[in-house]
Design a protein that fits this description.
Elements (H helix, E strand, L loop, with lengths): L13 E5 L2 H4 L38 H4 L3 H14 L4 E5 L2 H4 L10 H16 L3 E5 L7 H7 L6 H16 L6 E3 L12 H4 L19 H25 L4 E7 L2 E4 L4 H24 L4 H9 L10 H7 L4 E5 L3 E4 L5 H4 L1 E2 L3 E2 L15 H15 L3 E5 L17 H19 L4 E7 L19 E3 L11 E3 L1 H11 L6
Parallel strand pairs: 1-2, 1-12, 2-3, 3-4, 4-5, 5-7, 6-8, 7-11, 11-12
Antiparallel strand pairs: 9-10, 13-14
The chain binds 6-O-phosphono-beta-D-galactopyranose (BGP).
GO cellular component, one term: cytosol
Protein name: 6-phospho-beta-glucosidase
Organism: Caloramator proteoclasticus DSM 10124
Length: 484
C-alpha cells in the first residue's frame, strides 16, 4: 500500500542556488558598465554599518567592485554548479551593464552580450536561469539625478530596460523576478539599497527610525507600478514567461500569548511581509495598508489609471528569501522583555548564527503555509542559507557541517510543507558560491558550497574550492531531496 504521507519533492523540482550581480560579478567598470548604487558602498561589519561614499575615488575598499569575479570566471563557475547537478540558477542582470546611466538612449550591446554568454553556458548544462531584474543595483546616475524611485520617471526607465532584456532573452529565460526583496522599502535600511534614494544624513545604511516613510512608500508605489507594467509587457512578449514577486520574508512570532503581542505580530506580518505581495499578487492595496497610510499621514501620489495598471500586472508566482524568525512584543519595557524593540527580541527556543540571525527551520514550514493559503499560487524559496565563517584546513578541506545541518533541517521542513499541500516548485540557496554580503559588505560571511579565496581586505587568489557541503548538496539533488 502506498503511504500517502510518503510524499516526495515533485519530480521537476528546481534545485539550485542564488546570486546577485553586484555581490558576485565584479568587473564593475568593464564592458561599458556604468556605476550602480552598490559600487559606492564601503565595507562595514557586524557592528559598523555600510556607508555610501560621495565619490567613487574616495579611496576606501569597495567590496562590490571586484566581488568574486564571476564576470571573468563564469564558465568555470557554471561548470561547478553543473557538477552539483543544479537544475536552476538564480542570478540578476546588472541594470547598469545594459543601461550604464539608466536613462541612456540606447542599451549597451557589450553588456547584453555578456548575459548571452552566461545564458548559453547555463543552457549547455540544462540549468534553468531565474533572473532578478533589479537586485539592489539601480544605476547610480538614477539615484543622483532623479533621487531614485521617489521619482516616477524611473518607472519608464525600468520598463524600457525590461523591454530590452525580455526581447533579447525571450527564448532562453522563462522565470523572471521584478524586484529583489521589494518590501525592503517598508524598512528604513531599504531607502538606498532598494529605493536608490540618496540619504540626507551621514550616509549610513542602517535602521534609522527617524527616516521619512512618506518618501519610502511613494518610491514603493512607483516600484509596484513598474513591476505591474513589466509583468504585462513580459506576457505580451512571451506568453509563457513566468514573472514573480520577491519578498524578504521575516517570520514574526508573538513573544507571549498576550493578545496584544499576537495582534502586533499579525500587524507586522501584514505591513512588512504582505503589503507588497498583496499588491503584486492580488493587484490592489490591502485595507490595512490604507489604514496605516491614513494613521501615519502618508499620502501616496497615484495617477488616474494606477489602480488599473496594478490589476493588469499580477504576478504568476511568489518567491521569497527566508533566513530567520524574530519575536515581537507590545510591551515597550526592553529590560523586562530582554531585547531591543527595533532590532527584534530573542526567542529563547532558538539558536542564532554568528551574525545574530535566529535559526528556525520550522518557521519556514509555518511561512510556506502562511503564504500559500493566502494566495494559492506556486511558490519558490529563492534565498535561504547560513552565513558563517569557514576554515580551510591544512589539507585544503572545508568541513562546513554547520551549513549542512542548517540546510538539511530547512529542506525537511519544505517537505513537510509540501505534505501540508503547499505548491512549492523550487529552492535556490543563497550565495551558492561565496560572495560579498549585502548587509555588511564582508567576505567572511560565507554562504557557499564553493569557497572563494578572498578576504575582507580584498586579498586572495579568487580560486574556487569545494566545501564538504558541495558533495552533500550534489547528493540531495541527485536523490531529489530523499538522501539528506
Ligand atoms: C538578502 C539579499 C541578498 C543577500 C542575503 C543575505 O537580503 O537579497 O542580496 O545578501 O540577504 O544577506 P547578507 O548578505 O547581509 O548576509
Amino acid at each position: 500500500m502506498v503511504n500517502k504521507l510518503d510524499k516526495k519533492f515533485p519530480k521537476d523540482f528546481l534545485w539550485g542556488g542564488a546570486t546577485a550581480a553586484n555581490q558576485f560579478e565584479g568587473g564593475y567598470n568593464e564592458g561599458g558598465k556604468g556605476l550602480s548604487i552598490a559600487d559606492v558602498l564601503t565595507a562595514g561589519s557586524h557592528t559598523v554599518p555600510r556607508r555610501i561614499t560621495p565619490t567613487i575615488e574616495d579611496g576606501m575598499y569597495y567590496p562590490n567592485h571586484e566581488a568574486v569575479d564571476f564576470y571573468h570566471r563564469y564558465k568555470e563557475d557554471i561548470k561547478l554548479l553543473a557538477e552539483m547537478g543544479f537544475k536552476a540558477f538564480r542570478m540578476s542582470i546588472a541594470w547598469s551593464r545594459i543601461f550604464p546611466n539608466g536613462d541612456d538612449p540606447e542599451p549597451n550591446e557589450e553588456g547584453l552580450k555578456f548575459y548571452d554568454n552566461v545564458f548559453a553556458e547555463l543552457k549547455k548544462y540544462n540549468i534553468e536561469p531565474i533572473v532578478t531584474i533589479s537586485h539592489y543595483e539601480t544605476p547610480l546616475n538614477l539615484a543622483i539625478k532623479y533621487n531614485g524611485w521617489v521619482n516616477r520617471n524611473l518607472v519608464d526607465f525600468y520598463v524600457r530596460y525590461c523591454d530590452v532584456i525580455f526581447r533579447r532573452y525571450k527564448d532562453i529565460v522563462k522565470y523572471w523576478l521584478t524586484f529583489n526583496e521589494i518590501n525592503a522599502l517598508t524598512m528604513p535600511w531599504g531607502t538606498f539599497m532598494a529605493g536608490a534614494i540618496m540619504p540626507n544624513g551621514n550616509g549610513e545604511i542602517s535602521n534609522n527610525e527617524t527616516d521619512n516613510e512618506q518618501i519610502r512608500y511613494q518610491a514603493l508605489h512607483h516600484q509596484f507600478i513598474a513591476s505591474a507594467k513589466a509583468v504585462k509587457l513580459g506576457h505580451e512578449i512571451n506568453k509563457d514567461f513566468k514573472i514573480g514577486c520577491m519578498i524578504a520574508y521575516m517570520c514574526f512570532y508573538p513573544l507571549t500569548c498576550n493578545p496584544d503581542d499576537v495582534l502586533l505580530a499579525q500587524q507586522k506580518d501584514n505591513l512588512h511581509n504582505f503589503l507588497c505581495s498583496d499588491v503584486q499578487v492580488r493587484g490592489e492595496y490591502p485595507g490595512f495598508a490604507k489604514r496605516y497610510f491614513e494613521e501615519k499621514n502618508i499620502n501616496i501620489n497615484m495617477q488616474e489609471n494606477d489602480e488599473q495598471i496594478l490589476k493588469e500586472g499580477k504576478v504568476d508566482f511568489y518567491t521569497f528569501s527566508y533566513y530567520m524568525s524574530n519575536c515581537v512584543s507590545a510591551d515597550q519595557n526592553e529590560e523586562k522583555i530582554g531585547g531591543n524593540i527595533s532590532l527584534g527580541i530573542k526567542n529563547p527556543y532558538l539558536k542564532a548564527s554568528d551574525w545574530g540571525w535566529q535559526i528556525d527551520p520550522k518557521g519556514l514550514r509555518w511561512t510556506l503555509n502562511n503564504i500559500y493559503y493566502r494566495y494559492q499560487i506556486p511558490i519558490m524559496v529563492v534565498e535561504n542559507g547560513l552565513g558563517a565563517i569557514d576554515k580551510v584546513e591544512t589539507d585544503g578541506t572545508i568541513n562546513d557541517d554547520y551549513r549542512i545541518d542548517y540546510l538539511r533541517e530547512h529542506i525537511k521542513q519544505m517537505k513537510e510543507a509540501i505534505l501540508d499541500g503547499v505548491d512549492l516548485i523550487g529552492y535556490t540557496t543563497w550565495g551558492c558560491i561565496d560572495l560579498v554580503s549585502a548587509g555588511t559588505g564582508e567576505m567572511k560571511k560565507r554562504y557557499g558550497f564553493i569557497y572563494v579565496d578572498r578576504d575582507d581586505e580584498g586579498r586572495g587568489t579568487l580560486n574556487r574550492m569545494k566545501k564538504k557541503s558541495f558533495y552533500w548538496y550534489k547528493k540531495v539533488i541527485e536523490t531529489n531531496g530523499e538522501d539528506l
